[in-house]
Design brief:
The chain has helices spanning 9-16, 54-59, 85-99, 113-124, 142-148, 169-176, 197-205, 226-232, 279-294, 299-306, 342-353, 383-388, 410-415, 428-432, 435-438, 456-463, and strands at residues 7-8, 24-25, 27-29, 39-42, 64-67, 79-81, 103-108, 130-132, 156-160, 178-183, 211-220, 237-242, 247-254, 259-265, 268-274, 317-324, 329-336, 369-374, 401-405, 421-425, 444-448, 468-471. By secondary structure, it is α/β, with parallel strands linked by helices.
Length: 477
């Protein structure tokens, strides 16, 4: 990348129609806690009004602030003043898209958006400059922020696009002006806002409203709702992936530390791997290979770089918590506390089911597979049924105990066979108090739940049991 500023005051003013003094910005920030010197601070009004933090942002080295009014005691020459801050952020994002020759890939889906975004970052990174958000910035402010941060010399941009209500995806996809649209899968999620899986599919398919006329849609082949997706792709180049389709997964060997895949496309067989277990990861990886093919990239380089991908923190990262380094006592913790719906919970359970506990080291003698499952949110009127249905998943036969957190997870607790039924608590904080009794040396513990269920408190409590932790660079979501 060049040393050219990300935004000059003249460029930003032209993009937003605002008025300002003279400055150069090297980044864009919406949070004073993570702001870097040289950033343009965007004073969004969300849970708190960003205008209240403009003075602090400038004191911490912000180049300027994007505002709709002048805060008290702030020099107006350090402000880019616009009528509406969020709209101005969208305008910056749109201008950033127009000035780059990058190929822009949009990623949506009920499960695996963030992991697939990171797979694309890894797989494309050896063949050009890749721009993607560091976190799950996939909503009404996250997508324009990601675009506004995109350098002009970017070769590939990966834009994650999410939703929890109808009508959210299409405007974000149009803003991103996509060359490729990838849908990972469609599964029950956000059912509080949708009548059923078909409506979810329609909303996911709306990503194609943002495809350029020459664009390509990469779609899952084996879903009941696949016809809804392919119908929306009419008029575009469309490629499908799955156990059937244009890119076919012939075999996936899931081991404790890797997944080896054999796939076929256009009469050509491919053998590649990812350094983490999970059949769902294999499907996402196949979609990534399809994207790289659509971009005309070298498949050998793509698959080699894909093999170095690691899941992002909190998305199933596996670590070893050292209880006693002298006696070599430890347990493994799989932190998947960021998000949850029925499909992602099933995928996480399947991954941990192939991991091997260590026998003969703990008080109990036998290492156990333990699941701590928190509420899955936004599932609508069927939420109790969907929570209880987890008890019927055959992979639970490989687990030893399941602890449940939250009012919705009480339905699962009641449905579990007696041999699996562990603790149930109303809140994660209550279960976290008993962390010491939940685990023994040799165990593998999965913690999974929607972010608002706060099962991350259990993760933190389990980590604190150890004298040290060691990342094992594995993942499940």
């Amino acid at each position: 990348m060049t040393d050219k500023p990300l935004w000059t005051s003249e460029e930003a003013a032209a993009a937003t129609g605002g008025r300002t003094g003279a400055w150069d910005a090297t980044g864009v920030s919406i949070d004073t806690r993570t702001l870097r010197p040289g950033d343009l601070f965007v004073a969004l009004a969300d849970a708190r009004d960003g205008h209240d933090f403009v003075a602090a942002a400038l004191a911490r080295g912000a180049a300027a602030a994007l505002v709709s009014r002048v805060p008290d005691g702030v020099d107006p020459s350090a402000l880019l003043i616009v009528p509406d801050v969020l709209q101005a952020l969208r305008d910056l994002g749109s201008a950033a898209r127009r000035r780059t020759g990058a190929k822009v890939i949009g990623v949506t889906g009920s499960v695996g958006k963030t992991s697939t975004k990171e797979m694309l970052r890894a797989a494309l990174g050896g063949q050009g400059i890749v721009h993607a958000a560091e976190a799950s910035y996939n909503n009404h402010w996250g997508v324009p922020l990601t675009l506004a941060r995109m350098p002009a010399d970017t070769d590939f941009a990966v834009i994650e696009i999410g939703m929890n209500h109808p009508g959210e995806i299409a405007p974000l996809a149009r803003l991103a002006d996509l060359d490729i649209a990838l849908i990972t899968t469609v599964a029950p999620a956000h059912l509080a806002a949708f009548a059923g899986i078909a409506e979810i599919a329609e909303e996911k398919a709306a990503i194609m409203d943002g495809l350029r006329p020459t664009g390509t849609a990469i779609l899952p082949a084996d879903l009941e709702v696949t016809p809804i997706l392919t119908a929306r792709a009419a008029g575009f180049t469309c490629r499908t992936f799955g156990e059937t389709g244009d890119y076919r997964l012939l075999d996936a060997q899931v081991g404790e530390h890797a997944t080896v895949m054999r796939a076929a496309h256009a009469g050509r067989e491919m053998l590649f791997k990812i350094a983490t277990p999970g059949r769902h990861f294999a499907m996402n990886a196949l979609g990534v290979v399809a994207v790289a093919d659509a971009l005309g990239l070298d498949p050998a380089l793509t698959m080699a770089d894909l093999g170095r991908w690691r899941p992002p923190a909190g998305r199933g990262t596996r670590e070893r918590v050292i209880l006693d380094p002298i006696d070599d006592l430890s347990f493994d913790l799989v932190d998947d506390a960021f998000n949850a719906n029925p499909a992602s919970v099933a995928a996480s359970l399947e991954v941990v089911a192939v991991m091997k506990p260590q026998d003969g080291v703990g008080r109990l003698g036998k290492g156990r597979r333990i699941a701590v499952l928190g509420d899955m949110l936004e599932l609508g009127p069927r939420e109790e049924e969907l929570h209880a249905a987890i008890a019927d998943h055959p992979v639970l036969a490989r687990f030893d105990i399941v602890h449940c957190v939250g009012p919705r997870m009480r339905a699962l607790h009641a449905a579990l066979p007696r041999r699996l039924r562990g603790e149930w608590t109303e809140t994660a904080a209550e279960l976290a108090k008993h962390a010491r009794t939940l685990v023994d040396a040799g165990d593998i513990v999965l913690v999974k739940g929607s972010k608002s269920a706060k099962v991350s408190l259990v993760v933190d409590a389990l980590r604190k049991l150890g004298q040290a932790t060691v990342s094992l660079e594995q993942g499940t979501d």
